[in-house]
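re: that complex we talked abt at group meeting.

here r the seqs, copy pasted straight from the sheet so there may be weird spacing, ignore it
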Amino acid sequence: MSKLLKALCISAALSLLAAPWLHAAVVVSSKLSSESAMIGEMIRLLLDAHGIRTVDRSMLGTTPIVRKALIAGEIDLYVEYTGDAAFFFNMPSDPAWKNLRQGYELGAKLDYAANRIVWLTPADADNAWALAVRRDVAAANRLATMSDFARWVASGGKVVLACSAEFANGGTLRSLEHTYGFKLRSDQLIVLSGGETSATIAAAAAGTDGTDTAMVYGTDGGIVAANLVILKDDRHDQPIYAPVPIIRAAVLAAHPEIRRIVRPLMQSFDSATLRRLNARVQIDGESTQSVAEEYLKARGLLR
Amino acid sequence: MIAIENLGKRYGATTAVDAVSLAIERGSITVIVGTSGSGKSTLLRMINRLVEPTHGRVLIDGKDTAAEPAHLLRRRIGYALQGHGLFPHRTVAENIATVPRLLGWNKQRVAARVDELLTVFQMDPGDFRQKFPHQLSGGQQQRVGVARALAAEPSVLLMDEPFGALDPIIRAKAQEDLLGIQRRFGTTIVLVTHDMEEAFRLGKRVAVMSHGRVLQYDPPAMLLTRPADPLVARMTGIAHPALRLLSLMTAGDAAVPGESPGPRVAAAASLRDVLSELVWRGAESATVVDADGRPCGCLTIAAILARGRAS
Amino acid sequence: MRRLRHIDRLGALLAAVGAAALAFLPFVVFKLNRILPGDPRGLLQVLPAPASLACLATLTAAAIVALGVAKPQTRLIAAVLGVVVLGAALAAAGDALTPIGNKVVRVAPGSGFWVLLASLGMMASDAVTRLRPGPGLRVLYLAAFIAAAALALAHGTFEHISVMREYAVNAGRFRHEAWRHVLLAFGSLAAAVVVALPIGIFCHRVPRLRGGVLGTLNLIQTIPAIALFGILMAPLGALAAAVPLAARIGVSGIGAAPAVLALFLYSLLPIVANTVAGLKRVSPAAVEAARGMGMTSWQILAGVELLLALPVILTGIRIVLVQNIGLVTIAALIGAGGLGTFVFQGIGQNAIDLVLLGAIPTVALAFSAAVILDALVEVMKRTPP
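got the structure back, here u go
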């Protein structure tokens, strides 16, 4: 018919031919949070350095979206958290999640069986919900763990906790209270809408309305900058949320060296390191790429 | 030139046009007149197949109009409708050029034709070519509508109440112009109107329609003097048949050689106007002058009255 | 002060609001890092004396003009001058408050700045309206404004302002997402026009179907955007899984595919409705004349009906484009990309400046689209093709 139609047909045919070639690249994605994007970027840089072609689709969307994309094969790899498997497989009360090794093994087994997804090396860090108090308050009352905190509350300590509605009413706070034996009155709680730990951290840092304790995530970058001390979950009440890269089995089979490449990176992390790295991105506003690259070079994982 | 044979149109149970047969003479103006609902517009629009007949046929120069695709037929027939239907988004020149462009005329020919028509319709081409319809007066719009219909030099021009929207003064001028156009281009014109005066003024032959049928098809004088149907007589107006008749004749037709002390009247003036002038002036006779103003005869009241008698 | 015969009411309101903003609201907010709430700072606190006095003088002059001067040209010039000085003051505040080499502190425009900007902006747009510029001139004003803003941004005037800091960190991704945003909005619009125009023409020709078609499309409009995205995810995902060819060309349950499909569905109603309305307004005499002259149905449709209905159809397209530019922002939630990614990241990280980095360009894009298309509609109405 016309030249345009011919051009369209040819380009369609070419793109169909090219598509398999494109798909040989590993699509590295991440959730919206800056930590998962940062670790994802580190993994991607490592894969690139080892000669594996990658496609960057970081910050794709919320957890359900990213998970769907992985299962559908649109992305190949992203950083998940071990504790999330409790919700994927609908077993939130299983005690295995409270132990990093057990939770990891359970999640890996379930995900491989159900979705042919392989869990690579997890980091020894915990991004679960936790409480953090102002450094001066912690020093004055010798608070380092949740048990200390419970003792302090029970003895009439001036606690004002800023947290989200989900934390207060969704069972987490009650679980902590039950495990550690303390009870917060409603006038000791400031419930903020939305789940933004940055808001709770900011409240505790500024002492807004007497706030001295904030609900935080274990590896939040704001904790250090806001001069807060995170309280250790010494009785393991909360499930562990350790970052773990997960990958489609088919892609891993095509590039088995990925497991070996990722291991030293994940083993280099702990909660404190992640907090420091997150602080640079979340607080100082450095770009994810530059923080990722610098870290890899500093650890000798990248030349 | 146009032969309408047993043409009819039925919409379900209603008959709009009931087996009409007419023969329309080449180069003449034929007027179809009737009240609303008489089927006159439908009849007209069956000639160029804007309405497809239920039965019967139309032959133009011996060729059946149904033989070719309707849109090709219509490009050879001029069509002017009430409300002119000018394209508001096109200039006067582009409007007029519509059918020639459809027929594939080259640019120069089109431009020349546009200028020619504008001049004929007394609109300065330089002025009016680039104007848009909304910038024209009602009379100018109507003229452009007719010019557009004539643009492709059709041998037939169909007009559906073309002067209906004009005020009386402009309407008279427009009718006058149409007569001039017809003389100049020799187009066969079929015109539909509900105005009996207009029919009488313009038509060489007039078809009187009522309820889908043609009651009489004759020159205007015969409609007055020999109505085929009491309805025709009523429609053409019993009120002043004499004056109607006198309006059909000109002073030039009735003048006899001679001189008169009375007022001067144009040879083209109708006898009715001359009579009115003589009565007004209180004169017994008038001098008839031709187009150049030279006397060519005289006319007495008695002679005029004689002409107005039913014969 | 000669012409102070009567006080312009709008000017009085704007001057009062602006003065209150200057006096009581913070001009900038100084934050030690990007997530802390920050301290309010006033204009006079932040700039050195000569600069702040010059700024105050200009703003006062603008207020006086707003109150007493009737001539629109003068008002426009005063408002524009006010905006320029305001922008310069903001940039200077950023420079003054940021220690050299420090990349952590953030100087954000405060509520006082925004209110002053809005007041001056309203004064300017009111003056422009009084001047009643033609469509070409309006587009020229827009282009001039965008050029001036682009120049200031490129020159680094605002480099110490919080939003530009976020931009500096995300520059590459910003370009990518902005382009993607434009593609998604225009792409869905183009697809909708191709489908909706024939549907509109059809509805016009067959009045019986009009009610049903418009009713169905109306129903689609009532579905909230996020819900529609969610509804489309499952069938598109299933399609991509079942038909490999579909997956190859980009059909999938997440990302651009459901976003484009949803936007396409939302775009149908305005275009169909406006096409029907536009065609209805075409003079029947013109269509009848066109038929009588021997134009075919296609020639009448293309040469007469559509051309005469074009201004109304274009208005529908304008509505859709502005709507789509806004909706693409939400599509970031399902992985479609676009400027919305910055908005949602910012929300998640409690970094308002990141939200602004996504929101301000989106608003600017929508505004520009509206101005340009409105000008086009007006041109179509005035000098038809």
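couple things i noticed - Chain B has a mean pLDDT of 87. Chain B has 15 helices and 13 strands.
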